[in-house]
Backbone:
């Protein structure tokens, strides 16, 4: 593993530790005094994990869409077409996310296509 990957792994571990501490404090505050049943700890923790997953998916999809070039050839007629990022709501296995994807439209062929596909 290279130095940059190690640095990113450490940063992620530190941020996840901070997030876990905040989430645990929020749970304790919401649940009040007394001993909670374990599912009262597990279910909210899982929900926090799903929120994180949704954020990662949305961020990564945006990064991938923005990495696409501004123009690409139509797969049918080879005409240069402009690529534009578009947003839409999709349902991932962890819940709804806003997905950004690159879409190109060929006026000659009268069709849209996804350059990243």
Residues:
């Amino acid at each position: 593993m290279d130095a940059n990957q190690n640095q990113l792994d450490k940063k992620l571990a530190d941020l996840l530790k901070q997030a876990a501490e905040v989430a645990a404090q929020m749970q304790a505050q919401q649940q009040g005094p007394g001993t909670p049943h374990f599912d009262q700890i597990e279910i909210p923790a899982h929900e926090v994990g799903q929120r994180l997953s949704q954020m990662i998916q949305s961020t990564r999809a945006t990064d991938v869409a923005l990495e696409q070039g501004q123009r690409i050839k139509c797969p049918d007629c080879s005409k240069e077409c402009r690529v534009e990022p578009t947003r839409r709501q999709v349902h991932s296995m962890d819940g709804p996310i806003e997905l950004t994807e690159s879409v190109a439209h060929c006026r000659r062929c009268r069709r849209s296509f996804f350059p990243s596909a």
Remarks:
- The chain has a mean pLDDT of 93.
- The beta strands are 71-73, 80-92, 95-106, 111-113.
- Residues 70-117 form one domain.
- Residues 38-67 form the longest helix (30 residues).
